[in-house]
Amino acid sequence: MDNLDSSSTSSMAVVAAAISAMIIPIIIVSVIMIIANWKIYEKAGKPGWAAIIPIYNIIVLLEIVGKPVWWILLFLIPCVNIIVVVWTTNLLSKSFGQSEGFTVGLLLLGVIFYPILGFGNYQYLGPAGMPGGIKPIDPAAGYKDPFGNPPPPPPQV
Question: How many C-beta atoms surround the C-beta of residue 102 within 10 A?
């Protein structure tokens, strides 16, 4: 029992190699997410280092989305915290002028959408897009007909 046979030693080496192969991508993704959150905080006019301080990062996030600090207690209540996380994420996407579709992306594919928000050209509009909400886009505004003047209207009978 004191002696390890070669099969157990080689199996331990395989397990160690597998764990190492998983840890490296996890570290890379974690660093990218930290940098993306840092950039998001800086875009919102908050200190970027606040993104890496536990609990304080949530307080700063609540300031970014325009909610009171006591909401941090809602993050501690089971089942309620799920609703609050979704709501806060929606307010974060609204604060950068994005729609509910972007919120779904932040929730389901955060590894992709948080770097898009942090490194993209998105600008912070204020807490939840400023009072009054986000103005809808008028597709006719600034439209120029590529074929010149529109044809005359048909004669009326």
Answer: 20
